[in-house]
Amino acid sequence: MDTKLTLKLNQKVIEKAKKYASNKKMSLSRIVETYLQSLTSENDIAEYEISPFVKSITTGTEIPADLDYKKEYSDFLIEKYK
C-alpha cells in the first residue's frame, strides 16, 4: 500500500532530481522510494542501481558540467563485476 509523504528539500535539488527522473522515464517518487529501500535493506538487492547522480543529490556534492556519465557508469560496472 502506498502512503503519501511530504518532504522539504532545497529547490535546486528538486529541479535537478525532476530532470533526472524525466530523463530516466521514472517518477521522482519511485526514485526516492528505491533510494530509501537501498538505505534500509541490509542484504536485499535494490530493484534499481542508485546512480552517482542520485547519490550526489543526497550528499550535496556538485557534479562537473563536463562529466561523462556513461564512462563513469561503465567504470562503475567494470569495478563492480570484477
Structural account:
The chain has one domain (11-80). It is 57% helix and 0% strand. The chain contains four helices and no strands. It has helices at 11-24, 28-40, 52-59, 69-80. The longest helix has 14 residues, at 11-24. It is globular. The N and C termini lie far apart (38 Å). The model has no long low-confidence stretch (mean pLDDT 81).
Descriptive keywords:
82 residues; 4 helices; 0% strand; mainly alpha
How many structural domains?
Answer: 1
Number of helices, where a helix is a run of at least 4 consecutive DSSP H or I residues = 4
Helix-strand pattern, N to C? HHHH
Mean residue pLDDT: 81
Structural class: mainly alpha
What percent of the residues sit in helical stretches (DSSP H or I)? Answer: 55-70%
Distance N terminus to C terminus?
38 Å
Please state roughly what percent of the residues sit in beta strands, choosing from under 5%, 5-15%, 15-25%, 25-35%, 35-45% or over 45%: under 5%
**Which shape, going by the Cα principal axes?**
globular
Number of strands: 0
Largest sheet: none
Cα-based radius of gyration, to the nearest Å: 14 Å
Runs with pLDDT <50, length 5+? none
Quick gist of this model?
The protein is built from four helices and no strands. The protein is mostly helical and 82 residues long.
Topology:
Blueprint: H1 11-24, H2 28-40, H3 52-59, H4 69-80
